[in-house]
Amino acid sequence: MAVEPAVLHCLCGKPAAGKSTLCAELSRDAGTIALSEDVWLDALYGEEMSTLSDFVRCSDKLRYAVGPHVVALLERGLSVILDFHANTVEARLWMRRLADAAGVECKLHYLDVPDDLCRIRLAARRARGDHPFNVTPAQFDGVVAHFVPPTEAEGITIIRHAPPETL
Prior knowledge:
Distance between the termini: 38 Å
Mean pLDDT: 88
CATH class: Alpha Beta
Shape: globular
Number of domains: 1
CATH architecture: 3-Layer(aba) Sandwich
Largest sheet: 5 strands, parallel
Low-confidence stretches: none
């Protein structure tokens, strides 16, 4: 049986677009490792993060730490799903550089979900209390203000996903 080449999968979408759900689906493939920014940030810096600036500071530290590990996994033939925010050109460039360093393809899974649907999902997620971060409406607006949809000019294969049917 032929072995599939390793791939770096990246997820792009606004809060509650369905990135973690898609990550769980993609991670079912054998030889695939998923890394969740939210899980790591909560475990390492949970109490330190109350603003968007805090998130950016902590996220930058985490990226610095996990980058070489991601490259090593990819070089050993494992595909990696980075459930990290890929909502800016700069964030996606960091991801593409990891793939380039390992000599693998970078696939960006773009969940283009309308803001209104994301807001409904966020409210449901807050009510369930099943997510490490309870994004408030104001925080959602702050994230969306910095969101830059991906383009082919970034040199990443973009795979567009329709919004999942469930909240």
